[in-house]
Request: fold
Amino acid sequence: MIISQTPFRISFFGGGTDYPLWFREHGGAVLATTIDKYCYLSCRYLPPFFAHKHRIVYSVIENVKEIEDIKHPAVREVVKYLGIRDGLEVHHDGDLPARSGLGSSSSFTVGLLNTLYALHGKLTSKAQLAKLAIHIEQNIIKETVGSQDQISAAFGGFNIIKFNRDDSFQVDPVIITKERKEELESHLMLFFTGISRTAETVAQSKLKNFEKKTSQLSTMFQMVQEAQSILESSRVSICEIGEMLHEGWLLKQELSDKVSNKFVSDMYTSALESGAIGGKLLGAGGGGFMLLFVPPERQEQVRQRLRGLIEVNFKFENQGSRITLYDPNLGNSVETLKAAASIQLPSPDQLM
Reply:
């Protein structure tokens, strides 16, 4: 059995400019970090003693004989793409709910790829994992998704991710002191709105408006560099990040009327009235998790005002997707796994 651990992400600035429709013409960038909340995937060969050949366990349980019968789109298309014919059992567990704005679907895709490559004795680089996950989601499944989630999940860390017009990308770690990073962490609160939504519906509504929203998206793109300058300067108050988050949230709402709703608006207003400086819904919008920027001395007031909503404590993480367990029958080294590989999987290098 192979088990992978792949982080979820929080995006601060630049979301929207990571869609190919935008960056292929204008370029794009996001400022984002992964957090210590994860998607876990375990995978093993399924012995041939059952009526089914493949068993997929997530929010539902699928027992199927043919790959084409798998309903989970990422599992079905990843297994098909890699040309796997052996019976598989895949189990998914997550620290936080799906469809909540933390890039969980891309964490799943990245983690599944990492797990299946390891199961067959292959190692992939972080860049290869990200490229292949983007290809699977955008070109094969044809989901309306950007390109930041897959990269964050694969690489991990606190980064500026730049998107070039030729579909290439660059991951630049944000260079700040440990104290500055901890100061930023200490000002962040994460609350679950209780609303799960389909990101694709919200994303499609935003994409339809991109040509009319050039000014907003250009400003959101510029905010990435501005935020970087604030974070890298110890002379500038960290609270300016909170003010920028507020500005960015107002701009994001201008992209589509589906980004927010009355419940979210009332929740955000209550947070501001209780001491928050800024915040935003994570992901495409519509529901999921809300990130708030709140000075530590005001956080209990915000917590009391939003009582009844689930707060999630978190820290930044910097490892990205990783394999945490190898089958003890194969040994605990990558070399042993390589020697045990029985089939050749396609290389992600062939994609780009």
Summary: Residues 330-343 have pLDDT under 50 and may be disordered. The chain has twelve helices and 13 strands. The CA atoms of residues 62 and 71 lie 8 Å apart. The domain at 2-343 is CATH 3.30.230.120 (Ribosomal Protein S5; domain 2).
